[in-house]
Amino acid sequence: MERSIHTCYRRDRLNRTIVPEGCDMRERTVTVIGLGPMGQAMANAFLDRGYRVTVWNRTASRADALVARGAALAVSAEAAVAANELVVLSLTDYQAMYEILEPAVAALAGRVLVNLSSDTPERARDAARWAADHGAQHLTGGVQAAPPGIGQPGSFTFYSGPKDVFEAHQEALEVLTATDYRGEDPGLAALFYQLQMDVFWTTVLSWLHAVAVADAHGIAADEILPYAANLLKGLPDFLAFTAPRLVAGEHPGDVDRLSMGLASVEHVVRTTTDAGVDAALPTALLEIFRRGVAAGRAGDSATSLVEVLKAAR
Fold this sequence. Notes:
By secondary structure, the protein is α/β, with parallel strands linked by helices. The protein has helices at residues 37-48, 64-68, 77-83, 94-101, 121-133, 163-173, 187-216, 221-233, 235-248, 258-274, 280-294, 305-310, and strands at residues 10-11, 17-18, 29-33, 52-56, 72-73, 86-89, 112-115, 137-144, 156-160, 178-183.
């Protein structure tokens, strides 16, 4: 009779998983290190799917609810890493990974580190080399979901790193979200993640700026919400229209002109300053538009500003 995944293991005094002969726990056990809101959501998703979950966090009390659900709290980061082949990291950044795992390097050999922390592509590449130096394999991940979206349809995560390692653990990773594998380069998942954050945070800040200007005129956020939402609904069509032109490096002024955009942004800046609201955001935008016009692109589309931005490289 096949052994139950709930009895097909035992733990030693370091809380490491000991798998008896005949049991293969690789797909059904996981360690989660970092129990902020995202790490909590991930550990819960694994528990929901019947995984044996080992957890560790610098503030141990954050594991209380997970332990009550059946997770095992490791006594140290080293014990957490040693417990399972698959180790999911949900930390603030890669520096936190080094702070936590450098004292635990003795346990890294043979482990797969799935680093779902946010950081730069270059730091992801450095981390992959560091892991390899200690006998571990590294998958970079960029989660495109908030904690409530973990384990739910519609969310996904970028991954990059060794393809065979990704494929070996894809089933476990898809407990968390759908997966989008971008390639062998460890930096690619971090790059695609940061590209999305570039768009996201700029959009969020523009919304907050508009709310501040509206508030200065006695208009509440919920009153302008329908109009802002309607504006954003049109952005996918705008992106789809401009993407082929951007790929081709073509910026004809047949639909819009940079000179018109410049005038529009000037009006936004004046409206902001007249309201007594911080104008740093639209002023930064205005400076880029002015650089584009100064470069001789007044008659081109505003998409020509991509060339201005590239010129800073």
